[in-house]
Amino acid sequence: MRLLFVHAHPVVESFNTALFRASVETARLKGHDIRTLDLHAEGFNPVMSADERRSYTDSDQLPSDIVHHIEALQWAEGLILVYPTWWYAQPAILKGWFDRVWRPGISFTLRTRTEPMRPALTGMRLIGVITTFGAPWWFWRFVIGSPGHKIVLRGLRFCTAPRTKTFWMGLHEMDGQTKATRHRYLQRVRARIARIPL
Q: How many domains does the chain have?
């Protein structure tokens, strides 16, 4: 499968970066065709300018700095997002990637008077998330309502093939986890990536 891995953590020695590297390594060993986008490493700008917003619906006027991101997104059959959950959802740099890259004419068609909004990334058949949390699982799910989960596995998934498969992996209360617990989570991540069919 053509897999696009998108990473959104600024610290290269972080556990999140270790999850990203382990995921990519496992996918390569299994024989998948891989592309990676490390948003912080490349200095991705998550902020949409006024001019960009004015031409947002015109796919012929794409900002030059997102062209390779769009090409990678349209190339992918599977998307794996690796990021820390901050304030119950995606970090700003990843949310900005959604805002700027998942645009009309690229990932969906806009609704008209006669046509509903439709998905445009119909070649994509897998979306997965590998994340960590500061909050306990019950607080994130029942008190806050799992906003990060809904953004990806409802919102982004709509833009893909009707039968797109999904998976979600999260390690909660990250700051209190032991080295052994983090290692077990890393091994679970490797095992899940290894199960992705070619």
A: 1
